[in-house]
Amino acid sequence: MNRTSHLLFLLVLALMAGGLFATDGRMISLGYPYGFIRDDSDVHVYPATIFKYNRGVTGELYWDDYYYDKDDDELSWCWTLGTNVPVGKNVFGAYLNMPVDPLVNLDLINGDYKTRDDLDLSRKQQFYFGFKDHFALGLGYAADSYSQKWEGSEKYENSEDESAMYLELDGGMSFERMDLGLMAYLYNGKSGRHMDEAYVEDYSASGFGADLHGRYFVQETDLLDVVATADLGFSNGAWATYEEPDQKSDSDLGGSALMGGLGLGADYKITPNHHIVLSLAPVRIFSQKLSQKTSGESDFTDSEFVLFIPEYTLGLESQVTKWLTGRIGAIQSIQLWKWTHNDDWEEGYNLYEESDYTPYFDMNCGLGFHFGKFNVDAVLSKRLLHEGPSFIGGMSGGFASHISVNFQY
């Protein structure tokens, strides 16, 4: 991953923390103002807001770089589908194929030696239950496994086994002006290859983390809404390699990360159907540390720190006709990045430092279509806008890069 892509990933991570990919077409088109305006995507960060969106079905189709395959673009498109339904005085929500927090790292146990596709914990099933009008709990999970056995030389049994699981617990409470959300997760994975009782490779990965989000609407009127937000998150992971059976690990790799920020947002209602959305995050931080201990002489410690000062979003939403809404939005930030590496790979002690100052800007346009109880939100493909559709010689293969379909009943 190059520097620009890495910093972009960290920016989105700092924006979303636990609700990283809880996106829809409307929010992307408005410049990613997550949490600063009320939207049905709030459910994945503030679960108790499910009472505000208790009758609906939402489906989304979007491009996901995690699955990118240059030989098959179909693999890069992902679907999610979810619904919230009232159950007496309570509300139940179920969401299929939802993205998992990207800090789940199984790179070590997805080594080159494997004979099948990598273990994949990138998608989860997510459920919510709202009760007593103001409270909600959530549960998310994902799992993957594979096993094979075959006969080796001298009739020894060879085997390859691997498995991984992800478990998430959510909770939240919401009142007229205040929303709180908490997400805690853990994951575990292992893989092993045993060949003729002589060659053994065992790998393990585990981790846990939590994210806390809060917001308070200082003002909500027909002209102006003002909201203050805060978020804090951390994660911890450990990875180990075992080269011989029943032995201590040959290599231990551990890492931790901390992220947090403060924000202030405003929704200025020019008229009931025309909005300007502004947000300011004066400071956001992302810090992580990675260290390795081995049985040999290849220990190292890496630390990374990213400071966003400041970060702005600006979006416009305007209802053009009864059936069409236009949107345009942008985000801009200043990123200060520093990386430090310590190792003892060669004689003596080695220290290496690198820092960078990077401005970041992204902009999107979108359209919302309204047909009865259906709402369709589309983020226009940038290739379509700049290079034209493929059927007239352009580079865009489609109209939109993200489509959201919502049905309210």
Task: Please describe what this structure looks like.
- The protein is mainly β.
- The two termini are 44 Å apart.
- The model is unreliable at 1-23 and 112-116 (pLDDT under 50).
- The protein has one domain.
- The chain contains three helices and 16 strands.
- Strand 4 (123-131) and strand 5 (135-151) form a beta hairpin.
- Strands 1-2-3-4-5-6-7-8-9-10-11-12-13-14-15-16 form a 16-stranded antiparallel β-barrel.
- The protein is 6% helix and 62% strand.
Using the CA coordinates, give the radius of gyration.
24 Å
What is the helix/strand order? HHEEEEEEEEEEEEEEEHE
Report the end-to-end length measured between terminal Cα atoms.
44 Å
Extract low-pLDDT stretches: 1-23, 112-116
Strand order of the largest sheet: 1-2-3-4-5-6-7-8-9-10-11-12-13-14-15-16
* Strand segment count: 16
What percentage of amino acids are in beta strands? over 45%
Roughly what percent helix?
Answer: under 10%
Structural class: mainly beta
What is the averaged pLDDT score? 80
Number of domains: 1
Shape: globular
Give the biggest beta sheet. Answer: 16 strands, antiparallel, barrel
Number of helices: 3
